[in-house]
Amino acid sequence: MAAPLVIRNRNFRLLFTAGALTNLGDGVLVLAVPWLAALMTRDAVAIAAVAAAARLPWLLFALPAGVIIDRSDRRKLIARADLMRAGIVLAILLLALGDPAPGAIWALAGLAFLLGSAEVLRDNAAQTILPALVDPDDLEAANGQLWSTEQLTGQFIGPPLAGVLISAGIAVPFGLDVAVLVLAAGLVWLISLPPQVPSRARFAQALAEGIAFMRGDALLLRLAVVLGLANFIAMATITVQVLFAQEVLGLGAAHYGMVLSAGAVGAICGSLLAPRAMRLIGTQACLFLSIAVWGAGYASIGLSNSGWVMGLALTAIMAAAMLWNVITVSWRQRRIPPAMLGRVNSIYRFFGWGSMPLGALAGGALVVLAEQQMSREMALRAPFLLAGLCCLALLIYALARLRLE
User: Fold this and answer.
1) Measuring CA to CA, how many Å separate 80 from each of 72, 76, 77, 193?
2) pLDDT value at position 197?
3) Going from the N-terminus, what domains does the chain have, and what CATH number goes with each?
4) Does the keyword ATP-binding feature in the UniProt annotation (predicted)?
């Protein structure tokens, strides 16, 4: 029996460990940033603006990031992006240490935007570098292990850890994130890669080549659009999730962190069991199942009065999300030529992730508008209930138009 990939492949082990560290820090920020925002204001739109600012770079910079990745040493790019993120989180730490000023929430939004900008480069480069580190036959296993570790550290360990750290001081979780980002950058720097031939085309020409490839692949484009709509829906709920947990379910920081960790359990299971599920019921059926579970999970949260129900629903939603990711990311890494992987992958994620800031703003705006017609509680439930209906429409479209080759 062959040794696990993370043991027998040094380069993958370094990327895997660095990813585990950065995702631990990201998981701490998942709770710490909105919690800090909620300490600064109770305005749902202002809190949504912080979430939107963190995702806006995917809309603004995903396309040029792909060209930069194909023209750069991807290993160095990942390491430098992590160091940039460490500096930005340090600035958030200093903001958290100060007394909340009237405009502090907008300073936090600005720093979230800078953090998201560095993340665009880091995440795209990390996903693009993987085919150079592992054999093609190991892609599903490698992606599954990366996604499961991301969820273990980023969602299962990170949020409850943040809840504990916040009790010691709101600035403490940000200090931890600075430390792990610096360590992760050092690990990535140790990765050894064969010489790569960067794209020598002019910037505009290189970008046009990637766009032309994307336009010429109808199935790839449809998958990107469906992902974009799914992420729009997800962000509309995530944006108001902290207010829903606090005001409707009455959860504190530690208990809310545990609810987020329940989602991570599902994500870990979904990541590790995805290859087996694909063998048992088929890749196509798994794709449709993912969307159906999302819709059922959102509706369950919208109807719930319990943190337990919310935790179970997030478990199912995240398991389905990881199943979708393992299928589509591995399929994409095989389908796109290596020399164009950075550009096309970034264009794909422009569609798939660029919708997230719009979804974040939509979630906050929906609560504000709904409050004019109904109670605060029903207004906070509305994004989840509407998300369930939208996923039903998305499933109908997928059944008609998404047929993996």
Assistant:
1) 12, 6, 5, 17
2) 60
3) 8-189+203-401 (1.20.1250.20)
4) no
